[in-house]
Amino acid sequence: MYRKLSILVIFLLLLAACQKSGGLPGTSWDLVEMEGQPLLAGTGGTLEFADDGSASGFAGCNSFGAQSTEIKRKNVRFEEIFITEMACLDGTDNTDTGLMDQEGRYMQALNQVRSYEVEGESLVLFDESGQRLLIFKANSNAAG
Predict the structure, then answer these.
(1) Are 103 and 64 a contacting pair, CB within 8 Å?
(2) What pTM was estimated for this model as a whole?
(3) Does residue 87 form part of some domain?
């Protein structure tokens, strides 16, 4: 009897550990590649997954937020994406059209995401056909 109970407890502990590890909630990532291309020099982006199912980040000039749903079995979607609307200026107070274009492509890519894989220290987001859209590196400055 005690042996069966011990095996059940061990199984439940292992199951809980497996569900917690490898998940996206509580993780933070730095964008390094978008649609097979590196980001513009001197720019960056981030993506963070909160425990409550929300996601947020920095798109290079503006901050954004979203609801991330279906974070299970390697599926993920971003819904209700919103972004601040700050002007993206270059060093001479002119609009930085390259950065604005990159930001727009980042938001479009997030809308197309349907699945993910964590490959070592990288997070790869895919569209519904399995094409790589976004690649991130783990943010080493994030807590947790």
Answers:
(1) no
(2) 0.78
(3) yes
The token duo for 129 is 């056909």
AA identity, residue 55 = A
Note down pLDDT in tens along the chain; length 144 residues. Answer: 555 544 444 443 433 433 444 588 999 999 999 999 999 998 999 999 999 989 999 999 999 999 987 677 899 999 999 999 998 887 777 778 899 999 999 999 999 999 999 999 999 999 999 999 999 999 977 544
| CATH code where residue 95 lies | 2.40.128.270
- Specify if 108 maps to a domain: yes
Could you tell me the residue range of the domain that residue 117 belongs to?
Answer: 24-138
As for how many domains the chain has, the answer is 1
Q: Is residue 88 part of a domain?
A: yes
